[in-house]
């Protein structure tokens, strides 16, 4: 049976979850008094303590350096296994715009400054916006001196390629595709050339 790539974070991995659980339990302990209902109060205290431990573990885990981090951002390309999907001539247009670029104009501008308008982008599955449970495919421009987050694949492109890209991620590999920064000034856009991805489905890849 084929395992589909997850579309959202597990609830326990969602960043606000420990805070919300602890808040609810703290509110509950203010309502339930130990002298009135000790059978309910002390289990609540134990659960609150467990939630506090869960919160501390979550904070410690989020503070540990990771590449990509828990939101799918890259700090560098060092140590990553990259699989190139270069341009392939096709009859059907395979250039897609990157979504949410309006939120990442400073990063795109820096990437354009250091890497030019034509560069490459690494596609990072299981990325997400801050506080969102939804998994998306992050786009990291890598033409300059460091990766910079440009946005995410749009919904239709994500649905088409998420299984392929997540499969590479499971093997510790990330796909790199040609990218073009559009516009002479803000607001910039970013277009990705995904014409090489079908070759990866066929097992033709370059590292």
Protein described:
It is a single chain. By secondary structure, the protein is α+β, with helices and mostly antiparallel strands. The protein has helices spanning 17-31, 38-63, 105-115, 155-170, 197-201; strands at 81-84, 95-99, 118-127, 136-141, 148-153, 173-182, 189-193. It has a six-stranded antiparallel β-barrel. A hairpin with a 6-residue loop joins strand 4 (136-141) and strand 5 (148-153). The model has no long low-confidence stretch (mean pLDDT 91). The chain crosses the membrane at residues 12-33, 39-60. Keywords: Membrane, Transmembrane, Transmembrane helix.
Q: In percent terms, what proportion of residues is strand?
A: 15-25%
Shape: elongated
| Content-based structural category | alpha+beta
Number of strands: 7
Oligomer: single chain
Strand order in space, largest sheet: 2-5-4-3-6-7
The largest sheet is: 6 strands, antiparallel, barrel
Total individual domains: 2
Low-confidence stretches: none
Order of helices and strands: HHEEHEEEHEEH
Distance between the termini: 29 Å
Q: Write down the overall mean pLDDT.
A: 91
Number of H/I helices: 5
Helix content: 25-40%
Give Rg in angstroms.
Answer: 22 Å
